[in-house]
Write a structure and sequence with these properties.
423 residues; 6-stranded mixed β-sheet
Length: 423
């Protein structure tokens, strides 16, 4: 318990010890003007107190001051020597520590512990020293000497040591990462525009598009803490389409102490299964007829990548970061050309010509509503369609055309020799 008795022998000098044993002295402690009961508890640690000693026989008294201090270091008992697999997680919160987990606050730095010091909480820390045994030890891979220390609030410290032996690993201990190909029993294939981590940080690196070997990628062999086990990998890719490929990741694991090696192929499939996302035009576009015919022709509006602005006159493509896209245009002639809002029968398809620059020309557009259907297709064949309405109108006023013949008339021929011509 964190308490202290104050005896007369602690504050008196001379031959007081001879009478103290007979109970001749009375000790009183004051915190300011308030008398404090004995024994003193931890609430008075560090305080300056007044002490009074009275001889109960002759009633003589003397007084002085004292300061209560905690001079006892905290206690700690480390565990017996233990052995773990070299693949074990040596985090003390997993394999254990020389104090009860229930008494530890892991949210502080360093951790704090209750129950190992009677006068309050203490700070607990550890430091590891690792001795690798190499191939000379056929049983152990390494030994970890973990030094635990606890320190109280006034700086007193106590330390003890845990000894952790790690068994030497074998290739049989290796757990390879799963396949990511979507086959039964395996992990799902990776979407080409998914959030998985890439292998390289530089987009210019040829390996940038390959999955990383971290947990956020497609993983790596586990159970390789042992120094005698090492691994590496090499990738071969099989292109499926522009946004999809199959990756054969060849892992090679070697046991340097047993002169053995093992290879494992991890299958990783990166797929583009989602069609492009498209914003369809919302504006009905008016097209003027040609001056000499009651029909029109036009270049179909070219789709663009969406960059935050939409003028409503052309399709915009968003969320296509895998394989790029192409487009085609079809022209459908509705049975009812009077309304672009009606959904009804189709008389047929109009004339659409793909030009050398990749755009599409529409010819012989008759008056009224016309339907343009856009198909956006990515590099892996996924496609999205939407319709764009146009309305062909005769917006050109009539133009008078003079007859190309000359006729002349003589008026008042008898009176005036003059002529009037009509063209």
């Amino acid at each position: 318990m964190c308490q202290a008795d104050v005896l007369s022998t602690m504050v008196l000098e001379g031959e007081s010890t001879e009478c103290a044993a007979l109970g001749f002295y009375e000790v009183s402690i004051y915190d300011g003007n308030k008398r404090v009961s004995l024994p003193l508890n931890k609430n008075y640690i560090g305080k300056k107190l007044t002490v009074s000693v009275r001889n109960i026989v002759c009633n003589n008294t003397c007084w002085g001051t004292l300061r209560l201090e905690d001079k006892n270091p905290p206690s700690l008992t480390c565990r017996p020597r233990d052995t773990f697999s070299c693949a074990a997680n040596l985090d003390p919160r997993i394999i254990g520590m020389p104090v009860n987990f229930a008494n530890v606050n892991f949210t502080t730095s360093p951790w704090t512990v209750r129950g190992v010091d009677s006068c309050g909480i203490v700070y607990i820390t550890y430091r590891d020293s690792v001795v690798n045994h190499g191939c000379s030890n056929t049983v152990l891979s390494a030994t970890v000497y973990r030094l635990w220390c606890v320190q109280d609030s006034v700086g007193y410290q106590y330390c003890c040591r845990d000894t952790i032996d790690l068994e030497r690993g074998t290739i049989a201990d290796i757990i390879f990462p799963p396949h990511y190909d979507g086959l039964p029993g395996n992990a799902p294939a990776l979407e080409c525009n998914g959030s998985w981590d890439h292998l390289a940080d530089n987009p210019a690196d040829p390996k940038y598009y390959l999955p990383d070997t971290t947990v956020a990628g497609t993983g790596k062999p586990e159970g390789t803490y042992c120094g005698n086990i090492q691994y590496d990998f090499q990738d071969d890719t099989i292109q499926v389409c522009k946004g999809s490929y199959k990756l054969l990741r060849k892992w090679t694991v070697i046991d340097w102490c047993a002169a053995r090696h093992f290879t494992h192929i991890q299958q990783i499939k990166v797929v583009d299964t989602h069609p492009p996302v498209m914003i369809c035009p919302t504006t009905v576009r008016d097209i003027d007829t040609n001056p000499w015919t009651c029909s029109a022709s036009m270049i179909a509006p070219v789709p663009e990548d969406y960059a935050g602005q939409n003028d409503g006159t052309r399709p915009y493509v968003i969320n296509e970061g895998c394989s790029g896209w192409t487009y085609t245009v079809q022209h459908f002639i509705p049975a009812n050309p009077d309304s672009c809002n009606a959904i009804g029968a189709i008389l047929g398809q109009g004339v659409v010509t793909k030009l050398a620059d990749g755009t599409y020309q529409l010819s012989n557009l008759t008056a009224g509503c016309q339907w343009l259907v856009y198909t956006i297709t990515d590099g892996c064949g996924n496609s999205t369609r939407c319709a764009f309405d146009i309305f062909v109108r005769d917006l050109t006023p009539p133009v008078a055309v003079c007859q190309q013949k000359n006729r002349c008339f003589n008026w008042f021929e008898r009176q005036i020799n003059c002529a009037y011509c009509i063209f």
